[in-house]
Amino acid sequence: RLREVLEDRLQEIKKAKTWKHERVLTSPQDTKVKVKGAEGQFLNFCANNYLGLSNHPEVVEAAREGLKNYGAGLSSVRFICGTQTIHKELEERLSKFHGREDTILYGSCFDANAGLFESMLTQEDAVFSDALNHASIIDGIRLCKAQKFRYPHRDLNELEHLLAHSEARLKLIVTDGVFSMDGTVAPIKGLRSLADKYRALLAVDDSHATGFFGDTGRGTEEYCGVVGAADIICSTLGKAVSGAAGGYTTGPRELITLLRNVSRPYLFSNAPPPPVVAAALKRLRENTREFRAGLQAAGLTVAGDDHPICPVMVGEAPLAVDLATGMLERGIYVVAFSYPVVPKGGARVRVQISAAHAPQDIKQAVDAFADVARSVGIVKS
């Protein structure tokens, strides 16, 4: 009976053209990749490899050195015998990088968000979450006993209304710094003002900003001109910073100490220390501007702010699938997103720009998008 029920659901997904087909790469993560079952190479425009460090020789060598000096794993959680000097060194460097008192490492940022809310909030407290926050924030909030409020995306007026009517002991506002499906940036300055006005705390998930967003890669705070605005930052080492794995929470020393003692997903991570590459930051900004301008000139709608996440908005799921399929046929690897990953009617093809993309890569992608969009009827000839 279970197989029948599940098969019916799978057929519904296929019929709606929202099936998530996993293509298998047969090459390292890079701007050009090989895909199992396909000939030749494809330009990769769907990775979080913002600074092009996933396969950078220095990062690969750092991983080799870490393996040689510290082994492949620790077979223990941190508080028993799972902490090595490399973990403490990375936590110290991340604290200095963000200008915070202390940092705690996790296996991923998903774990960091899962461990935050349950650890610090009780039924006396309240959490206020942006409607488009990442699934890890949503799941983390579900685990805690606090009062839960969701405000419309970046709607400061509605958030203020909720804060003004709350009598909670602790009030925690939580937001993505950059929203990964839209490329929009949280109004950090306005959120900080409301936090100050209503004696609330501000937590930011900066996974799609750390290491490359802002003049020195300090993330959304720096981009918005309010460094230090967030009381708590959760972020990742698996995107711009090394492209490897691991997540962390950084903030007040007392909070980090509490997380070390009661946070359930608290795991070790042995990712290499994060480099900040000025040249890569410059190239990333230039590539982003060039790509956005090219697609807009071709008549396509690119959502989001001045960020390397460039969602090409289509609307209907079948059109998004057709666009992504046509791009792959032209040697460009992108992925279509539709409901339930994004709202109904908001299907899109998400493009992610990397500093490692050469100017000719950007031009090739722009030209291909223009051609395919015309051929599938998204843009009229």
Automatic annotation (TrEMBL):
Q: Which domain of life is it from?
A: Eukaryota
The residues covered by the Aminotransferase class I/classII large domain are 42-369
User: Known InterPro entries for this protein?
Assistant: 2am3keto_CoA_ligase (IPR011282), Aminotrans_II_pyridoxalP_BS (IPR001917), Aminotransferase_I/II_large (IPR004839), AON_synthase_class-II (IPR050087), PyrdxlP-dep_Trfase (IPR015424), PyrdxlP-dep_Trfase_major (IPR015421), PyrdxlP-dep_Trfase_small (IPR015422)
Q: Which Pfam families match?
A: Aminotran_1_2 (PF00155)
State its cofactor.
Answer: pyridoxal 5'-phosphate
Please provide, in alphabetical order, the Gene Ontology terms of the cellular component aspect for this entry: mitochondrion
Keywords of the record, alphabetical order, are: Acyltransferase, Ligase, Pyridoxal phosphate, Transferase
What CDD domains does the record tag this protein with? KBL_like
One Gene Ontology molecular-function label: pyridoxal phosphate binding
According to its UniProt entry, one GO biological process term is: L-threonine catabolic process
Q: Does the keyword Ligase apply?
A: yes
Q: Which family does it belong to?
A: Belongs to the class-II pyridoxal-phosphate-dependent aminotransferase family.
This protein is called 2-amino-3-ketobutyrate coenzyme A ligase, mitochondrial
